[in-house]
Design brief:
Layout (H helix, E strand, L loop, with lengths): L6 H22 L2 H7 L4 H7 L3 H25 L11 H22 L1 H9 L1 H22 L8 H24 L5 H20 L2 H4 L3
Helix pairs in contact: 1-2, 1-4, 1-6, 4-5, 4-6, 4-7, 5-6, 5-9, 7-8, 8-9
Length: 208
């Protein structure tokens, strides 16, 4: 007769994994150490999670979902057309502020998960994909002449998303002693610089 999996043991494994992944990174994390910290055998641990990737998914999926919702929420609320009269940079100021506050809040409340996530390539790629979404929409809404299906445009938005993420990684890694207010300010300033850089491409993008 198969043993019933216990929710409290599953949570104990995830708690142990949170510390192990944070201290040693995904590659260096040991399932044996996680099992020991959870007061169980390695064999019993594998009844709950088939491998480290499965365990990482359980630990980090909620954090990824929160970040994705923050980004997606801003994408869904963007106006269809952004006129020059409105001021393109001004249109995004409040959105950049909300993004900054959202990122800083997730970092502050789920610090170990957040840092583990940005250090794990597969998970980090998911966040980069979300950032690329908003970069693509920004270019689409700002520059009517841009062909989003052009390979070059896709490469540019990919480069921008990767650059934003790399900068945020450095910020979060170096800001573990900073207050949430300081982190919000740094993220907002950093993202605003990218907004200005995109707007500076107006003459190039809208060239007939």
């Amino acid at each position: 007769m198969a043993q019933i999996l216990k929710p409290e043991l599953r949570e104990s494994i995830i708690k142990s994994a949170r510390h192990e992944f944070y201290v040693n990174g995904f590659e260096g994390a040991s399932m044996r150490n996680i099992a020991k910290a959870a007061h169980m055998t390695v064999g019993n641990l594998y009844r709950y999670f088939k491998n480290k990737e499965d365990l990482a998914d359980a630990l980090l999926s909620s954090t990824i979902d929160k970040l994705d919702k923050i980004i997606t929420g801003e994408i869904n609320n963007l106006p269809v057309n952004i006129s020059k009269e409105q001021g393109r940079s001004a249109e995004f100021d409040s959105r950049i502020r909300r993004l900054s506050m959202g990122f800083a809040h997730v970092f502050e409340t789920e610090r170990k998960e957040f840092l583990t996530l940005i250090r794990h390539q597969r998970m980090a790629d998911q966040v980069v994909g979300s950032i690329k979404k908003i970069m693509t929409v920004m270019v689409e809404r700002w520059f009517s002449q841009v062909d989003l299906f052009d390979r070059r445009t896709d490469m540019i938005t990919s480069m921008l998303a990767s650059s934003v993420f790399c900068g945020l990684v450095r910020l979060f890694e170096d800001s573990q002693q900073s207050t949430q207010e300081e982190i919000e300010w740094m993220i907002m300033t950093y993202l605003n610089l990218f907004t200005l850089m995109i707007s500076a491409g107006e003459l190039h993008y809208e060239k007939k």
